[in-house]
Amino acid sequence: MMLIDCPWCGPRSEREFRCGGEGHIVRPHAPDTVDDAAWADYLFYRGNPKGLGYERWLHRFGCGRWFNVVRSTTDHRVTAVYGMTDPRPELENGR
Amino acid sequence: MSGARVAGGVAIDRSRTIHFRWAGREYTGFAGDTLASALLANGVSLFGRSFKYHRPRGLLAAGLDEPNAIVQLERGATTIPNLKAPYVELYDGLDARPVNAWPSLDFDFMAVNALFKRFIPAAFYYKTFMWPNWLLFEPLIRRAAGLGRSPESPDPDIYAQVSAHCDVLVIGGGIAGLAAALRAGHQGRRVILATGGAHWGGRFAGSEELVEGRPAQAWITSALRELAGMPNVALHNRTLATGHYDDGLVALCERVTDHRPLADRTGARQRLWRVRAGEVILATGAFERPLAFANNDLPGIMLAGAAVAYLHRYGVLVGRELVIATNNDSGWHAAVSLAEAGARIVAIVDARSAPPQTLLAAAEAMDIAVRCGAAPERAVGVKRVRAVKIAALDAQGRLSGKSERFACDTLLMSGGWNPAVHLHSQAGGALRLDPALQSFLPNPQDGIFSLGGAAGDFSIDSTLAAARGAIADPVNAPARPVWSLSRTAEPDPLAWIDFQNDVTASDVAIAARENFRSVEHLKRYTTLGMASDQGKTSNVSGIGVLSQLLDRPMEAIGTTRFRPPYDPTTIGVFAGHRIGDGLVPRRRLALEHRHLAAGAKIEEYGGWMRPVAYLQTGETEAQAIAREVRAVRNGIGLFEASPLGKIEVKGPDAATLLDRIYVNTVSTLKPGRCRYALMLDENGMIFDDGIVTRLADDHFLVGTTSGHAAAVAEILEEWLQCEWPSLRILTQDVTTCWAVLNLAGPKARDVLDALDSSIDFAAAAFPHMQHREGEIASIRARVARVSFSGELSYEIAVPWRDADPLWTLLTAAGEQHGLTPFGIEALMTMRIEKGFLHVGSETDGATQPQDVGFAAVLAKKKSDFIGRRSTRRADSLRDGRRQLVGIAVDDPQPVEVGAHIVGIGREAAIGSDGWITSSAWSPTLGAPVALAMINNGAARIGETVQIWDLGQRREGRIVEPCRYDPEGARLNV
To answer: What is the largest CA-CA distance in chain B?
Structure first.
């Protein structure tokens, strides 16, 4: 159980949160104009990186706010926490 | 010759005698004894029969690394299988039995397995018992597997859970842990010190060895006294650290009452601590390794450190005529301690050709025979060791030359020490191989510190310095690795590595030969390390044997992955209070007391306890349901609809948001109007339905199904916060703020007119699908004229606390009209008669709006909404999709939900055309009604079909979904 640093509430146990999956998934601006492959890409395909990756998290049993996180899928360490509308940071070198 | 009680024993209290039962016989011991120490003191040497070959086994160790002495504790609901005898504290009336031996330990029928040993080595079940059919043999083999017996009734004990935070968590109550806790305590930090056993002091409990100039036990006692006096330090014994997770989270399992007589136990049996520590200090010690030679599993053959522990902690001398076989210094220290207690040391056999001179001198002074550069070749004995054959080791580490025989009643082995790195590794810490120890040490990791034996530091001075903040770099004298003692390159087939799972050194050779060469494959192919001792005395030895066979360094082979729990931990302690009603809290209606008083049968629907029907005297459930339906259709009924989701959506952009959420266009709703709307997921599948109401230009009330209230509220916020953060909207889930009573039936208006309200309920003033706010008899109310039953219907929402007065008002005003409370089943019957959709019944994970009659609405909406693009995929647009229809049958038996629809002429039910999704007996029609999703159903109205259910067939007809008042005249009165 990780300790996650909610931008509003501070470090809280992972149990208070829900992981919303990969972050920065871009919804096609005009869905009507994209083909099935592009729409399927948006719906189903994810980067699934080994190592650092972008995720969005919800402080479900806390303030109820969504935020972004850079987290390693191999050792769980969180290297960045930033707002939902903030630009995403570059990933560190290595995993 | 066997064990006996002698002087000493720091853990026992000789003034308190304990009576207990083992294998059907009565014994006595002392308070503070473990089951193992008490039985040893009583001269017992046979403790178990091995898993596969049923070989006689005795104690190997003194703690939770014990692989042989596996016991079944107590009987009935409180019985616990597979406990390790040294880890069971003795209490008055304890009743324990051996496992895996029948009819007795002494004479075990299954020992016949040993005759077939060469046919059942490791992994035999992958290669044998195939012909004629593995399934013939599997049940027999499964029945023979396992050790103890599981209880057959629910766990009667209570388990507690608690969270704790501290600056420093010290795990391990030995010298290292005590010193670390003292230091952190003196620094004023909040400290938790936990140790798994009952005793403090670890390896040095009861020892006379000097620690800072004092005998170890004296040092320990004074350290404990000092710690107990510090208010910022909490001491917990019988509290085992069982898992080390991320960010300093450690799970501790505290055995609260396991050491008390059964009759004296009250409260929680065990307690799970979830500790979040700023820093974790692992003072978990090290485990001693056995030596692998032929018959090393005979009773009377034990780890040298264990023999010392039995002596110093419990005052038990494990034998009288001892041979000590070792490859490091600690075997010699054990010999000295035991000799001082009255044992005769027959010989010390050291694999090293040149042990330290000080040790040799001490042995000579005590007249102990010494053999250097030698090791055991074979132990001799049947139910206990009575001699050991020793031979010299050549340069390659193989036994060679003439063997020498030493008679003995006990053989102690010390093959080296493995630091207990489990908790370090569980949290992701890396390991390195120490060439001197021939074992794995923890690499430094942020926030995790290892001290003492756990760090490969076996020097008291060095450990104390490290505990006080010095950087330690322990230097150990090289042990001579002797992984497999044999005269050839082939390991001996009777040299045991994993005692509990009966895995020998030659089994490791089989795995290597068959190319199961990775350490994870070795484990699973041979089952080495997979027993309840989790390989504490076998994992590293197995890696060592494999390393020799493959000529590959141990560090290249590595260790298997360490996972919690560290020792088998009872499932109840992880469940805590989350069992039965505590697992899923039941949600109760505002007026449950009223429903019960009216005769309701209550059942759970989607987490809510709701009335099925209100049974009057002498009524069956079916009769009650029919009566309630007739009452609603012909008169007036009352239903509590509080669980329906209600979400307030308010702001200048509220309409914009809802247009993007729903299939329907919501922005065209006028204030005071309602619309039935569908919500999809982004994959185009129907997720929820409900009534959307516009209260004002910028204020909407979103209705959801009872089961999805929280989910829809979350979805709205997710889209707002993540995708459309610039929309100016606030949302609030108010589902449980408002209780809702549904007044339904042709007489509904008559009842409402009788009450003193600010709302005009006249038909022209308050049409169907509209909403009014106001007061009913001074109770603030929001009234929606919406209908799920198909009759004139008002859903009256009042603040939750005002539900009871409202019920009183409505039932009083309704009495003269025969107002009838009705339950879920009546409501469901009526909505099926009307062909109304119920999300989760007609819809599944593949249902899209066009399948349930929403094609026109879907086509009309031109702006984007969640899931719209997905409804334009080829699969969504194709012909032949399952569509919502009704099913009529001629005989009075309702059809089964889930029954398959098969076209006439099709013989098999495979590839059905769809299935029944809802079904009920309709008192209104006097016939069964049903809804179904059928391929191309809308085009097949009138078609006769077969209904196939569990091999039975009957005929039915596809009809329109709505079987009652299709024009909706009764809704618009």
So the answer is: 115
Subunit contact B717:A13, Cβ cutoff 8 A: no
DSSP state of A89: P
Q: How far is the alpha carbon of A89 from chain B, nearest alpha carbon, in Å? A: 17
pLDDT at B650: 98
Q: Which residues pair with B325 in a beta bridge?
A: B349, B413
Structure tokens at A90: 């570059």
Say how many CB pairs under 8 Å bridge A and B: 53
Q: How confident is the model at residue A95 (pLDDT cuts 50, 70, 90)?
A: very low
User: Of B548, B455, B452, which is closest to residue B497 (Cα–Cα)?
Assistant: B548
Q: How much is the pLDDT for B910?
A: 64
Q: Is A92 on the interface with B (CB under 8 A)?
A: no
Judged by CB atoms closer than 8 Å, whether chains meet at B428 and A43 is answered as no
Q: How far is A35 from chain B (nearest CA, A)?
A: 9
Backbone phi and psi for residue B31, each to the nearest 5 degrees, phi listed first: -55, 135
Nearest to B448 by CA among B479, B474, B473, B425: B425
Residue B125 confidence (pLDDT): 77
Mean residue pLDDT across chain B: 95
- Using a CB-CB cut-off of 8 Å, the residues of chain B touching A2 are 246-247
- Residue B565: asked if its preceding bond is cis (omega within 30°), the reply is yes
**B918 neighbors B930 (Cβ within 8 angstroms):** yes
Residue of A27, A29, A95 for testing the chain B interface, max B β-carbons within 10 Å: A27
Distances (CA, A) of B377 to B355, B391, B398: 20, 6, 10
Q: Which of B247, B714, B864 sits opposite A2 (nearest CB)?
A: B247
**Between B907 and B633, residue with greater pLDDT:** B633
Grouping H, G, I as helix, E, B as strand and the rest as coil, residue B814 is helix
Average pLDDT score over residue span B881-909:
88
- Within 8 A by CB and 6+ apart from B207, the residues are B201, B215, B216, B217, B308, B312, B337
A19 CB near a chain B CB, below 8 Å? no
| Sign of the CA dihedral with B840 first, then B843, B845, and B848 last | negative
Asked if A36 and B873 come within 8 Å (Cβ–Cβ), the reply is yes
CB within 8 Å: A1 and B717: no
Which pTM value belongs to this model? Answer: 0.90
A78 in contact with B at a CB cutoff of 8 Å?
Answer: no
pLDDT at residue number A93: 62
Reported as a pLDDT band with limits 50, 70 and 90, residue B908 is: low
* Plot region of B515 (φ>0 → left; ψ -120 to 50 → alpha; else → beta): left
Cβ within 8 Å, pair A31-B868: yes
Of B245, B248, B722, the CB nearest to A84: B722
pLDDT tens digit sequence for B475-516 = 888 888 899 999 999 999 999 999 999 999 999 999 999 999
Cross-chain residue pair B870–A39, CB shorter than 8 Å? yes
* Residue spans of beta strands (DSSP E) within B697-789: 699-704, 730-733, 738-744, 770-776, 779-785
Give the closest-approach CA distance of A43 to chain B in angstroms: 7
Q: How far is A53 from chain B (nearest CA, A)?
A: 18
List CB contacts of B265: < 8 A, sequence separation 6 or more.
Answer: B257
Task: Please tell me the distance in Å from B278's CA to the nearest CA on chain A.
Answer: 11
Each residue's pLDDT tens digit, B410-469: 999 999 999 999 999 999 999 999 999 999 999 988 889 999 999 999 999 999 999 998
User: What span, in angstroms and rounded, lies between the C-alpha atoms of B367 and B633?
Assistant: 105
Query: Of B422, B476, B475, B478, nearest to B450 (Cα)?
Result: B422
What tokens does B28 get? 């006595």
Per DSSP, B574 falls in state: H
Report the residue of B424, B714, B718, B722 to disrupt the A interface, i.e. the one with the largest count of A CBs within 10 Å.
B722
